[in-house]
Amino acid sequence: MEQLSRVAGTVRPGGRTARVRAAVLQATQDELVEHGFHGLTMDQVAAAAGVGKTTVYRRWGSPAGLVTDLMTELADQSSPHADTGSIEGDLRANALAVCEAVNDGRLGATFQAMIAAATCDEQAANALRAFYRRRVEEWAGAVELAVERGELPKGTDAMEVIRAVSAPLYYRLVVTREPVTPEVAERSVQRTLAAARAGAFIA
Length: 203
Fold this sequence. Notes:
This protein is mainly α. 72% of the residues lie in helices and 0% in strands. It is elongated. The relative contact order is 0.13.
């Protein structure tokens, strides 16, 4: 769904506050990948980041605060939606970006840890929900352009189209644990596109 940096907190330059945040978010992602959400502790993150525990507790408050900021940073780093000139090309770019992200050792593990945490922790669920809402809203712009160009019918729910593209990919990642391949991504694009052209996503 988006092109992401593999390491959180590395984009914004300048100032000690920015450097501390970058170090803490990188350490948070490291710990999340290695130990999962429920193994994430403030003390471990502070030690890994080389930052005082007081600073981490004061600024982030809890492990949930850390992962919320991490997901915000990952969303901030994401690229804008594709604009290839056709809805087929844009949806393909979306699906391949999801495929690349979930197959990346670091990002894929981050998402799996967050998805697992979201099933039993409301704050983790809120952080994950906010991340994906931002990304779906961003990519919905590609669908809205397609409606303006006459490629899709008026009234098409742009966000539902984007969700439909990535849903089969995340199902494989989280539920069936099957490979998420470019071929799978392409099939999802073609099925979603056929349904959208037929008016299946008209609100």
